[in-house]
Amino acid sequence: MDILNSLQTIVGQSNVLTGKDVTSRSVGWFDSNARQALALVRPKCTVEVSQVVRLCYQQSISIVVLGGGTGFVEGSISHEHQVVLSFERMNKIESIDEDNRSVLVQAGVPLQALHEFAQDHQLHFPVDLGARGSCTLGGMAATNAGGNEVLRYGMFREQVLGLEVVMPNGEIITNLRALLKNNTGYDIKQLFIGSEGTLGIVTRLTLRLRPLHNSVSTALVAVSQFEHLVTALRNLDRQLGGRLSAFEVMWQDHYQFIIDDGQKHQAPLSTEHPYYVLIQAANYHDLEADIFMSALEACMNDGIIVDAAIASSKAQQQAMWAIRDDIERLTTGLAPYIGYDISLPINRIAGYIDQLQTAIKSQWPEAKIIVFGHLGDGNLHLFIHVGPTLTAKTKDAINHLVYQPLANLSGSISAEHGIGLQKKSYLKYSRTQEEIALMQLLKKQLDPKAILNPGLIFDYSER
Amino acid sequence: MDILNSLQTIVGQSNVLTGKDVTSRSVGWFDSNARQALALVRPKCTVEVSQVVRLCYQQSISIVVLGGGTGFVEGSISHEHQVVLSFERMNKIESIDEDNRSVLVQAGVPLQALHEFAQDHQLHFPVDLGARGSCTLGGMAATNAGGNEVLRYGMFREQVLGLEVVMPNGEIITNLRALLKNNTGYDIKQLFIGSEGTLGIVTRLTLRLRPLHNSVSTALVAVSQFEHLVTALRNLDRQLGGRLSAFEVMWQDHYQFIIDDGQKHQAPLSTEHPYYVLIQAANYHDLEADIFMSALEACMNDGIIVDAAIASSKAQQQAMWAIRDDIERLTTGLAPYIGYDISLPINRIAGYIDQLQTAIKSQWPEAKIIVFGHLGDGNLHLFIHVGPTLTAKTKDAINHLVYQPLANLSGSISAEHGIGLQKKSYLKYSRTQEEIALMQLLKKQLDPKAILNPGLIFDYSER
Hints:
homodimer, Uridine Diphospho-n-acetylenolpyruvylglucosamine Reductase, domain 2, Uridine Diphospho-n-acetylenolpyruvylglucosamine Reductase, domain 3, 4 domains, 7-stranded antiparallel β-sheet, 5-stranded antiparallel β-sheet, 15 helices, 22% strand, globular
């Protein structure tokens, strides 16, 4: 085929995979189906990406962009008539400017590689999430990844100083300036961050780094009322002067479900309390560990926190995080389940969860609803299991029960994970018609042939 | 005139100013010329803004949007055939959510009003700048304002959770959700932030608030080499765990020029040092004042800081800031002058300034070049005086000397102030042709009749 020859000319024969080399790969972490594609191409630089995209544009072949394949929302499914553009060879950290605290990377660099690189330079890249070994920085920019330290440092968007993007027609737009302040017209990079690869392909990034802490203080605490969670969050965040980096709440059912899993975890606290919070703060000075302790003590004296376990070693810190991070226990123990990633203003969370539990249990009395999340950001993860089978119809019914109330509560149907194909029929609960029309207009202008990641976020076809 | 009647029908007779009521106003703080306009209208709500814009759109009358009129870059000049849309009546703080730490405001609220309101609720809005009494939050969003605390909290963009915008055809796009995390398709608000009112008109905003500190620690220190400035910044930022909120550097000429102004200021430090830095950190706990002192002492022991004055009272803090903030001394003492607001990676600053001083002094040996800025953000302000007269030709020559080298140094011709009319012929030094073409494409799609703030940032006409 002509197109395969042309692709080989651009990236080299060994970097155009077809047939079994494609189908032997799965779609991603959360989709074990065999990947389908006309070809999977592995460019080594921006110019090759640009040439591949230009070729596809000319031939009206659509492109699915592939980072680490760790997305949750069916964002990188490909079909046998599509070209998959994989960033696996564009995994170089190109340069670091320690004085300026910035780093220039290719889009295929995995998150963990940047963590380690930064740490070697006594610096810190403050986005972290479970898929750190596989997820790529380009994919994280395209999806505006969140994770564990958003409370303190913001989403991925706020770490991006500069971007290089290949447009749907192959044009390269480069602005990799490592500047915190740059008010010279429209901040174009913002368009591409979080657009799930539908407007342009991120090829390189300039990212902001932060000072590395000396140590972290970690505690697992128990709280008896939702209102006290809010108070504890506000008191601790204030007393720690913004150094609070995690405030991860687990509802009782969640904590119990993980702890009851036999030998795997030791319980730092008994399972009788309504809420558990994993609290973490970074320390840059020895005195700050004392401040952490005194802030916790103040909350206990006020009755806002009813029990607390303070990690006194790195092993104890890891054991506490292992409880919070034991997603495998949920995915296996609750199968079949549906997972959610929503957000809403903090003082609406308790009422929303109560209402949702009632609504679901009235239809499925045996349902299990596991709730946990980054409360500091209003971000909740839900795992819902209603019985041994889960039909598409049931799934849709539960989706509506979860998503519909968010519209009136000014919430979001996707706090971190994005929309992809999976959530697009529920987008209306979070965005107005006018907003969706504006998104479609932008897509139409920037990608008139709908070449890039077609079908994600909203429906759009060449008109 | 028909149009005036129609405007009066929308906003009421007393809110359509014409003739003397318009010309008796100046263009803005930095332009004392009389304002010209077909009419200056003062809507009281978003619906009125929308109706005014729709009317102008239908009649192809262009609109100049007016906040506090404190911009530096000729962004709100209007002509006698244009409608000026003033936000002076849309100055209400609509609601606060203390638990969620967010506030909903109309676009015409002055910055200082929000500071005071937040403080009354034990919260902090972390953007601050000299024009605080007049500049409006809508204008600050439209221009992505910077200021004093960017090092810690980021630009205005990072404080915006939600926006309501009136589009050039009068359509209202509202997303005022108070969410830190919301990955539901394109983050449309980012398009409007920093676009200088050329793509849509900000009418209401949801802003993020932060915990209020207990106190601040302030010091003025002297540094003998530029490299030590960089080291001091990095050491202090690390040791203060991110609480460092100001690192304002004054080059010797600047400090001397202000101090030499007779009775106005007392010098906390002698004027013999090459650099002076005003350092400030927020404290949330008593121990943090000790950490501030020990971090400064460590820098002094290492010889990175050669002299220091620590403010021991609020009056002393204010006196130190008064030196940094005495812009009047510069504007009067250096008249005629040109002011600049540039940024570049921190380790390129010293070389750039040396080269610039040489280039300017070779043409104007008597020139005065005053340099100061937010070094933590790579942001420098320059005041350049070359002699008793300043022709347009000289101005342009100096502009090129300042701006041209920034292109190769990956700098920015405008860190905070924006482009407006004033800097648009130099935009090419900071943005590529492809970037400017993309900006023009966005303008063309969103404002096809070029109704809003025409002429700002780049040239664009209806095609």
